[in-house]
Request: fold
Amino acid sequence: KTVENGSYTWSSPSNIALVKYWGKKKNQIPENPSISFTLNNCKTTTTVSFSKKEDSDSFSFDVFLDGDKKDGFKPKIETFFKRVETYLPFLKDYHFKIETSNTFPHSSGIASSASGMSALALCLMSVEKELLSDDVISSTVEKSEDETYFLQKASFLARLGSGSACRSLEGDLVVWGEHANIEGSSDLFGVKFPHQVHDVFKNYHDTILLVDKGEKQVSSTVGHNLMYGHPFAQERFKQAHKNLEAISKILQEGDLDKFIALVESEALTLHAMMMTSMPYFILMKPNTLQIINKIWAFRAETGSKVCFTLDAGANVHVLYPEKEAKTVLAFIENELAVFCQNGQYINDHVGFGANLI
Ligand code: PMV
Reply:
Protein backbone atom coordinates (compact mmCIF):
# COMPACT_ATOMS: atom_id res chain seq x y z
CA LYS A 1 0.00 0.00 0.00
CA THR A 2 1.27 3.46 -0.78
CA VAL A 3 0.73 6.02 1.89
CA GLU A 4 1.92 9.51 0.97
CA ASN A 5 1.74 11.13 4.37
CA GLY A 6 0.11 11.11 7.77
CA SER A 7 0.61 11.84 11.42
CA TYR A 8 0.27 10.09 14.78
CA THR A 9 0.44 11.33 18.34
CA TRP A 10 1.17 9.21 21.40
CA SER A 11 1.63 10.20 24.96
CA SER A 12 3.76 7.96 27.13
CA PRO A 13 4.64 8.14 30.82
CA SER A 14 7.91 7.84 32.64
CA ASN A 15 8.52 4.94 35.03
CA ILE A 16 10.37 4.36 38.27
CA ALA A 17 12.24 1.12 38.84
CA LEU A 18 11.83 -0.79 42.11
CA VAL A 19 14.41 -3.42 41.13
CA LYS A 20 16.95 -1.59 39.00
CA TYR A 21 18.34 -2.27 35.57
CA TRP A 22 22.04 -1.44 35.67
CA GLY A 23 24.38 -3.21 33.30
CA LYS A 24 23.67 -4.48 29.80
CA LYS A 25 24.99 -6.82 27.15
CA LYS A 26 25.10 -6.18 23.42
CA ASN A 27 21.92 -4.93 21.71
CA GLN A 28 20.43 -3.46 24.87
CA ILE A 29 19.96 -6.84 26.52
CA PRO A 30 19.82 -6.32 30.29
CA GLU A 31 22.18 -8.20 32.59
CA ASN A 32 19.34 -8.62 35.06
CA PRO A 33 15.56 -8.37 35.16
CA SER A 34 13.97 -5.19 36.52
CA ILE A 35 10.49 -4.04 37.53
CA SER A 36 8.98 -0.57 37.63
CA PHE A 37 5.88 1.35 38.55
CA THR A 38 4.54 3.17 35.53
CA LEU A 39 3.96 6.83 36.38
CA ASN A 40 0.95 8.92 35.46
CA ASN A 41 1.72 12.64 35.34
CA CYS A 42 5.32 12.71 34.14
CA LYS A 43 4.95 12.06 30.47
CA THR A 44 6.07 12.89 26.97
CA THR A 45 3.71 13.61 24.11
CA THR A 46 5.15 13.04 20.65
CA THR A 47 3.68 13.67 17.22
CA VAL A 48 5.32 12.02 14.26
CA SER A 49 4.30 13.43 10.88
CA PHE A 50 5.59 11.53 7.90
CA SER A 51 5.70 12.27 4.19
CA LYS A 52 6.95 10.13 1.35
CA LYS A 53 10.25 11.26 -0.15
CA GLU A 54 11.77 10.73 -3.58
CA ASP A 55 14.72 8.60 -2.59
CA SER A 56 15.36 6.01 0.10
CA ASP A 57 19.07 6.70 0.52
CA SER A 58 19.25 7.90 4.08
CA PHE A 59 17.23 8.86 7.13
CA SER A 60 15.56 12.22 6.97
CA PHE A 61 13.96 13.79 10.02
CA ASP A 62 13.65 16.94 12.12
CA VAL A 63 13.14 17.12 15.86
CA PHE A 64 11.27 19.79 17.81
CA LEU A 65 10.97 20.18 21.57
CA ASP A 66 8.14 22.46 22.67
CA GLY A 67 8.04 23.91 19.17
CA ASP A 68 11.77 24.69 18.97
CA LYS A 69 13.95 22.85 16.48
CA LYS A 70 16.50 20.74 18.35
CA ASP A 71 19.32 19.57 16.15
CA GLY A 72 21.11 18.50 19.31
CA PHE A 73 18.71 15.55 19.63
CA LYS A 74 19.41 14.30 16.12
CA PRO A 75 22.40 12.01 16.80
CA LYS A 76 20.44 10.08 19.44
CA ILE A 77 17.53 9.59 17.06
CA GLU A 78 19.84 8.73 14.16
CA THR A 79 21.39 5.99 16.33
CA PHE A 80 17.93 4.77 17.24
CA PHE A 81 16.82 4.72 13.58
CA LYS A 82 19.91 2.73 12.64
CA ARG A 83 19.21 0.18 15.35
CA VAL A 84 15.56 -0.31 14.41
CA GLU A 85 15.81 0.00 10.63
CA THR A 86 15.73 -3.77 10.06
CA TYR A 87 12.47 -3.97 12.00
CA LEU A 88 10.91 -0.89 10.36
CA PRO A 89 12.05 -1.14 6.74
CA PHE A 90 10.05 1.94 5.69
CA LEU A 91 12.19 4.37 7.72
CA LYS A 92 14.22 5.60 4.76
CA ASP A 93 11.16 6.04 2.53
CA TYR A 94 9.74 8.94 4.50
CA HIS A 95 10.72 12.26 5.96
CA PHE A 96 9.70 12.45 9.63
CA LYS A 97 8.85 15.50 11.65
CA ILE A 98 9.12 14.56 15.32
CA GLU A 99 7.47 17.05 17.68
CA THR A 100 7.78 16.35 21.35
CA SER A 101 6.94 17.95 24.67
CA ASN A 102 7.22 16.85 28.30
CA THR A 103 4.85 17.57 31.16
CA PHE A 104 7.76 17.86 33.57
CA PRO A 105 9.99 20.89 33.50
CA HIS A 106 12.79 20.81 30.96
CA SER A 107 16.16 19.93 32.53
CA SER A 108 14.52 18.98 35.81
CA GLY A 109 16.95 16.11 36.11
CA ILE A 110 14.08 13.77 35.29
CA ALA A 111 15.15 11.57 32.45
CA SER A 112 12.86 11.99 29.47
CA SER A 113 14.45 9.10 27.59
CA ALA A 114 12.02 6.45 28.91
CA SER A 115 8.85 8.39 28.13
CA GLY A 116 10.32 9.95 24.99
CA MET A 117 11.63 6.77 23.39
CA SER A 118 8.47 4.86 24.18
CA ALA A 119 6.26 7.61 22.68
CA LEU A 120 8.44 7.67 19.55
CA ALA A 121 8.41 3.88 19.22
CA LEU A 122 4.60 3.88 19.50
CA CYS A 123 4.25 6.55 16.81
CA LEU A 124 6.45 4.51 14.47
CA MET A 125 4.37 1.41 15.19
CA SER A 126 1.23 3.37 14.24
CA VAL A 127 2.92 4.24 10.95
CA GLU A 128 3.80 0.58 10.42
CA LYS A 129 0.23 -0.43 11.19
CA GLU A 130 -1.11 1.96 8.59
CA LEU A 131 1.37 0.77 5.98
CA LEU A 132 0.47 -2.85 6.67
CA SER A 133 -3.26 -2.29 6.94
CA ASP A 134 -4.00 -3.70 3.49
CA ASP A 135 -1.70 -6.59 3.98
CA VAL A 136 -3.35 -10.02 3.87
CA ILE A 137 -1.19 -11.29 6.70
CA SER A 138 -2.23 -8.68 9.22
CA SER A 139 -5.93 -8.96 8.33
CA THR A 140 -5.94 -12.65 9.24
CA VAL A 141 -4.62 -11.88 12.71
CA GLU A 142 -7.13 -11.69 15.57
CA LYS A 143 -7.63 -8.24 17.11
CA SER A 144 -6.20 -9.23 20.51
CA GLU A 145 -3.16 -10.84 18.89
CA ASP A 146 -2.83 -7.70 16.84
CA GLU A 147 -2.74 -5.56 19.97
CA THR A 148 -0.22 -7.85 21.65
CA TYR A 149 1.97 -7.71 18.56
CA PHE A 150 1.68 -3.91 18.46
CA LEU A 151 2.60 -3.36 22.11
CA GLN A 152 5.33 -5.98 22.22
CA LYS A 153 7.00 -4.70 19.12
CA ALA A 154 6.66 -1.09 20.31
CA SER A 155 8.29 -2.08 23.62
CA PHE A 156 10.98 -3.99 21.73
CA LEU A 157 11.73 -0.87 19.66
CA ALA A 158 11.61 1.42 22.70
CA ARG A 159 14.19 -0.82 24.37
CA LEU A 160 16.54 -0.21 21.48
CA GLY A 161 16.13 3.53 22.07
CA SER A 162 16.68 3.44 25.80
CA GLY A 163 16.52 0.24 27.83
CA SER A 164 14.13 1.38 30.55
CA ALA A 165 11.79 2.88 27.91
CA CYS A 166 10.45 -0.61 27.20
CA ARG A 167 8.79 -0.47 30.65
CA SER A 168 6.80 2.70 29.89
CA LEU A 169 4.06 1.47 27.54
CA GLU A 170 1.74 -0.27 29.96
CA GLY A 171 0.94 -0.17 33.63
CA ASP A 172 0.74 -0.43 36.48
CA LEU A 173 3.82 -2.60 36.95
CA VAL A 174 6.10 -3.80 34.18
CA VAL A 175 8.85 -6.41 34.23
CA TRP A 176 11.68 -6.35 31.74
CA GLY A 177 14.22 -9.16 31.60
CA GLU A 178 13.87 -12.89 31.68
CA HIS A 179 13.06 -14.36 35.06
CA ALA A 180 12.08 -17.97 35.71
CA ASN A 181 9.23 -16.95 38.02
CA ILE A 182 7.66 -14.30 35.81
CA GLU A 183 5.66 -15.91 33.07
CA GLY A 184 6.19 -14.39 29.66
CA SER A 185 9.12 -12.23 30.81
CA SER A 186 11.67 -11.41 28.15
CA ASP A 187 14.98 -9.66 27.68
CA LEU A 188 13.57 -8.16 24.49
CA PHE A 189 10.55 -6.22 25.76
CA GLY A 190 8.61 -5.30 28.87
CA VAL A 191 5.60 -7.30 30.05
CA LYS A 192 2.88 -6.43 32.50
CA PHE A 193 3.47 -7.95 35.93
CA PRO A 194 1.41 -11.12 35.53
CA HIS A 195 0.00 -11.48 39.06
CA GLN A 196 -2.80 -9.85 41.00
CA VAL A 197 -1.29 -6.98 43.01
CA HIS A 198 -2.33 -6.32 46.62
CA ASP A 199 -4.73 -3.39 47.12
CA VAL A 200 -2.22 -1.47 49.21
CA PHE A 201 -0.23 -0.82 46.02
CA LYS A 202 -3.22 0.58 44.14
CA ASN A 203 -2.61 4.19 43.20
CA TYR A 204 0.76 4.18 44.99
CA HIS A 205 2.22 7.67 45.12
CA ASP A 206 5.60 8.92 43.92
CA THR A 207 6.60 12.47 44.73
CA ILE A 208 9.79 13.37 42.91
CA LEU A 209 12.00 15.75 44.85
CA LEU A 210 14.12 17.81 42.48
CA VAL A 211 17.38 18.03 44.39
CA ASP A 212 19.61 18.74 41.43
CA LYS A 213 18.16 19.87 38.15
CA GLY A 214 21.48 20.05 36.36
CA GLU A 215 22.63 17.90 33.48
CA LYS A 216 23.25 14.29 34.43
CA GLN A 217 26.81 13.85 35.66
CA VAL A 218 26.99 10.36 34.20
CA SER A 219 24.89 9.36 31.19
CA SER A 220 23.21 6.00 31.56
CA THR A 221 25.24 4.66 28.64
CA VAL A 222 28.44 5.43 30.52
CA GLY A 223 26.85 4.08 33.69
CA HIS A 224 25.88 0.72 32.22
CA ASN A 225 29.35 0.38 30.75
CA LEU A 226 30.88 0.79 34.20
CA MET A 227 29.45 -2.62 35.02
CA TYR A 228 31.86 -4.28 32.56
CA GLY A 229 34.68 -5.67 34.64
CA HIS A 230 33.13 -4.24 37.79
CA PRO A 231 34.35 -6.27 40.79
CA PHE A 232 30.85 -6.74 42.21
CA ALA A 233 28.89 -7.00 38.97
CA GLN A 234 28.13 -10.74 39.00
CA GLU A 235 26.94 -10.65 42.61
CA ARG A 236 24.79 -7.65 41.83
CA PHE A 237 23.13 -9.37 38.86
CA LYS A 238 22.40 -12.42 41.05
CA GLN A 239 20.97 -10.19 43.76
CA ALA A 240 18.65 -8.47 41.28
CA HIS A 241 17.27 -11.87 40.21
CA LYS A 242 16.62 -12.72 43.87
CA ASN A 243 15.09 -9.33 44.55
CA LEU A 244 12.75 -9.65 41.61
CA GLU A 245 11.49 -12.93 42.94
CA ALA A 246 11.10 -11.43 46.41
CA ILE A 247 9.28 -8.32 45.23
CA SER A 248 6.91 -10.40 43.15
CA LYS A 249 5.73 -12.05 46.38
CA ILE A 250 5.68 -8.74 48.26
CA LEU A 251 3.53 -7.09 45.60
CA GLN A 252 1.01 -9.90 45.81
CA GLU A 253 0.97 -10.12 49.61
CA GLY A 254 1.15 -6.41 50.42
CA ASP A 255 3.89 -6.51 53.08
CA LEU A 256 4.99 -2.87 53.14
CA ASP A 257 7.88 -3.35 55.55
CA LYS A 258 9.45 -5.87 53.21
CA PHE A 259 8.67 -3.56 50.27
CA ILE A 260 10.49 -0.67 51.95
CA ALA A 261 13.56 -2.75 52.79
CA LEU A 262 13.85 -4.12 49.27
CA VAL A 263 13.21 -0.87 47.40
CA GLU A 264 15.57 1.26 49.48
CA SER A 265 18.27 -1.38 49.32
CA GLU A 266 17.95 -1.50 45.53
CA ALA A 267 18.36 2.28 45.30
CA LEU A 268 21.43 2.32 47.53
CA THR A 269 22.93 -0.67 45.72
CA LEU A 270 22.59 1.14 42.39
CA HIS A 271 24.56 4.04 43.86
CA ALA A 272 27.02 1.67 45.53
CA MET A 273 27.78 0.20 42.10
CA MET A 274 28.66 3.68 40.87
CA MET A 275 30.79 4.45 43.89
CA THR A 276 32.75 1.22 43.47
CA SER A 277 33.33 1.32 39.72
CA MET A 278 36.42 2.62 37.95
CA PRO A 279 36.13 5.52 37.37
CA TYR A 280 33.91 6.07 40.42
CA PHE A 281 31.08 8.54 40.90
CA ILE A 282 29.03 9.92 43.74
CA LEU A 283 25.72 10.91 42.22
CA MET A 284 23.98 11.81 45.46
CA LYS A 285 24.20 15.37 46.76
CA PRO A 286 24.30 16.38 50.42
CA ASN A 287 20.58 17.16 50.19
CA THR A 288 19.86 13.66 48.88
CA LEU A 289 21.26 12.29 52.15
CA GLN A 290 19.44 14.91 54.22
CA ILE A 291 16.17 13.78 52.65
CA ILE A 292 16.91 10.08 53.20
CA ASN A 293 17.66 10.73 56.86
CA LYS A 294 14.48 12.77 57.24
CA ILE A 295 12.43 9.97 55.71
CA TRP A 296 13.97 7.44 58.08
CA ALA A 297 13.32 9.68 61.09
CA PHE A 298 9.73 10.31 60.01
CA ARG A 299 9.15 6.58 59.63
CA ALA A 300 10.61 5.89 63.08
CA GLU A 301 8.50 8.62 64.69
CA THR A 302 5.17 7.97 63.00
CA GLY A 303 5.17 4.38 61.80
CA SER A 304 4.56 5.66 58.29
CA LYS A 305 5.34 3.34 55.37
CA VAL A 306 6.91 6.08 53.24
CA CYS A 307 10.18 5.12 51.54
CA PHE A 308 12.55 6.39 48.88
CA THR A 309 14.14 5.24 45.70
CA LEU A 310 16.74 6.88 43.44
CA ASP A 311 17.60 6.97 39.78
CA ALA A 312 21.15 7.45 38.56
CA GLY A 313 21.15 10.99 39.94
CA ALA A 314 20.56 13.13 43.02
CA ASN A 315 16.76 13.42 42.85
CA VAL A 316 14.71 11.42 45.34
CA HIS A 317 11.51 9.55 44.53
CA VAL A 318 9.33 9.41 47.65
CA LEU A 319 7.00 6.40 47.50
CA TYR A 320 3.95 5.98 49.74
CA PRO A 321 0.54 4.32 49.84
CA GLU A 322 -2.59 6.20 48.80
CA LYS A 323 -4.03 6.16 52.31
CA GLU A 324 -1.02 8.10 53.65
CA ALA A 325 -1.14 10.70 50.89
CA LYS A 326 -2.30 13.59 53.06
CA THR A 327 0.17 13.13 55.92
CA VAL A 328 3.14 12.37 53.68
CA LEU A 329 2.42 15.37 51.44
CA ALA A 330 2.36 17.61 54.50
CA PHE A 331 5.66 16.08 55.66
CA ILE A 332 7.18 16.68 52.22
CA GLU A 333 6.00 20.27 52.11
CA ASN A 334 7.08 21.04 55.70
CA GLU A 335 10.31 19.10 55.98
CA LEU A 336 11.65 17.97 52.61
CA ALA A 337 10.88 20.82 50.20
CA VAL A 338 13.70 22.91 51.72
CA PHE A 339 16.22 20.42 50.32
CA CYS A 340 14.89 20.76 46.76
CA GLN A 341 16.19 23.23 44.20
CA ASN A 342 13.85 26.22 44.40
CA GLY A 343 11.65 24.06 46.66
CA GLN A 344 10.47 22.14 43.59
CA TYR A 345 8.89 18.71 43.58
CA ILE A 346 6.44 16.84 41.36
CA ASN A 347 3.50 14.81 42.64
CA ASP A 348 2.83 11.69 40.69
CA HIS A 349 1.24 8.30 41.19
CA VAL A 350 1.06 4.96 39.49
CA GLY A 351 -0.52 5.02 36.04
CA PHE A 352 -1.55 2.69 33.27
CA GLY A 353 0.67 3.42 30.33
CA ALA A 354 0.71 5.14 26.98
CA ASN A 355 -2.23 6.55 25.04
CA LEU A 356 -2.89 7.24 21.39
CA ILE A 357 -4.09 10.83 21.14
O1 PMV B 1 17.20 3.18 30.29
P1 PMV B 1 18.54 3.69 30.66
O2 PMV B 1 19.62 3.10 29.83
O3 PMV B 1 18.57 5.18 30.74
O4 PMV B 1 18.86 3.16 32.14
C1 PMV B 1 18.10 3.51 33.25
C2 PMV B 1 18.68 2.95 34.48
C3 PMV B 1 18.03 3.35 35.79
O5 PMV B 1 17.06 4.35 35.62
C4 PMV B 1 19.08 3.86 36.74
C5 PMV B 1 17.37 2.13 36.45
C6 PMV B 1 16.11 1.64 35.83
O6 PMV B 1 15.90 0.41 35.86
O7 PMV B 1 15.30 2.44 35.34
In short: The mean pLDDT is 94. DSSP finds nine helices and 14 strands in the chain. Residues 233-253 form the longest helix (21 residues). Residues 17, 20-22, 34, 111, 113, 162-164, 220, 270, 311-312 surround PMV (CB under 6 Å).
